[in-house]
Write a structure and sequence with these properties.
Length: about 375
């Protein structure tokens, strides 16, 4: 990915789901006859537009599903109507709390230094990037002063400063514009929440305060201050003690959780319980019995896997037992489950699985490359004898 695309993605991810930018990966079939250059360009542009439209449609579908899930979990769609007069007071409150430009100011606070630092990382000035480009250990590069690092980076990209400035000039206005589009919906959602949470008297008192010079100053800055570097740094510093507290109390929590009985599986049900379950679910009890028998078959082989691991026979025994578990599951069902045949999957499901598999493969390859680089660096420090 080019640097400007990386910057654009980093900026946009602050305001929209990252997957909105991931167009589906589809390989075009090979053409027998090579089309003229102009026709190829038109085809490429059409394909790109189609991919973008497909990505937008996919994003909208996922957002719609998320909206339905949120409405279902929180029951938002079942809330009573807000009286118009109460809503009008709340809208006055949220207009004061989220004046035009509030979100942009918050992002400026958060991204002021971060955005510049990010461009430095992606632009080739980081210790890691300089190490990759030169082959020199990152520890040695880390010891250099910033002036030297900048001079080295400039040797690789003499137009680095102009490029970074251009990225800022191009991306920042786009983010500001997008954040401005979000302010209206945010104010509206907050208005309904405030109208339900506070009384008319409380909203009136808030509005009176926000009409004062001090109230206006607070309303203008409260959101930006949530992303102030000092606030963010204080929160980051508070994380380790919080995690340590959970880690220290881990044994205590685990002990209390062990006191609870294990969740039952279908394999634990008696015939009488299966009959009761079938009645509740309005299904034939034979279906549940077949499922229970499959669970029992798999559980038997799972015990064999654990026994093989405990016996010290190693991975071969474990792998063999695992294969046996799969075979037992197939045997219990009478045959191989056709649901595993990708030809029987929908195109959307198949595409999603293939994209995730490709991502996992790339991540595995990147991890291997990083491991080999680390080994090489370690050998430079302590050569193999």
């Amino acid at each position: 990915m080019s640097n400007w695309k990386s910057i654009l993605l980093a900026g946009a991810v602050a305001i929209v789901p990252a997957h909105a930018f991931a167009a589906p990966k589809k390989e075009a079939p090979l053409a027998v006859v090579v089309a003229p250059a102009e026709e190829q360009s038109d085809q490429s542009e059409a394909s790109s537009e189609a991919a973008m439209a497909d990505a937008k449609a996919k994003m909208q579908k996922e957002i719609d599903e998320a909206i339905k899930l949120i409405e279902k979990i929180f029951g938002v769609d079942k809330l009573p109507a807000v009286p118009p007069a109460q809503l009008a007071l709340a809208q006055q409150t949220t207009t004061a709390l989220v004046p035009p430009g509030s979100l942009a100011k918050m992002i400026d606070n958060m991204y002021g230094k971060f955005f510049k630092g990010l461009m430095g990382e992606l632009g080739g000035m980081s210790d890691l990037m300089l190490s990759i480009k030169t082959g020199v250990e990152s520890e040695k590069i880390e010891a250099l002063d910033e002036k030297s690092k900048a001079a080295i980076a400039d040797m690789f990209d003499p137009q680095r400063a102009q490029r970074e400035e251009q990225m800022t000039n191009v991306i920042k206005p786009l983010i500001t514009e997008a954040l401005g589009d979000l302010e209206g919906p945010m104010r509206n959602g907050m208005a309904y929440a405030y109208a339900r949470k506070f009384s008319a008297q409380q909203l009136g008192e808030m509005n009176a305060f926000f009409a004062t010079p001090t109230g206006k100053a607070y309303a203008d800055e409260w959101m930006a201050l949530q992303a102030d570097p000092e606030v963010m740094l204080a929160m980051v510093k508070a994380v380790p003690p919080l995690i340590n507290k959970f880690m220290d109390r881990g044994p205590e929590i685990e002990g209390k959780m062990k006191d609870l009985p294990k969740e039952r599986q279908l394999s634990d049900f008696t015939d009488a319980e299966l009959a009761k379950l079938a009645k509740l679910m309005k299904v034939d009890v034979k279906v549940l019995k077949e499922q229970r028998d499959q669970w029992n078959s798999v559980d038997d082989v799972t015990e064999a896997v654990e026994a093989a691991d405990d016996s010290g026979y190693g991975d071969d025994a474990s792998a063999a037992a695992t294969d046996a578990a799969a075979a037992a599951a197939d045997a219990a069902s009478g045959d191989w489950d056709p649901a595993y045949d990708r030809e029987n999957w929908s195109e959307a499901d198949r595409t999603r699985v293939e994209e995730l598999e490709a991502t996992a493969s790339e991540a595995s390859s990147a991890a291997y490359d990083a491991e080999q680089a680390a080994i090489a660096n370690a050998r430079k420090k302590s050569p193999k004898k």
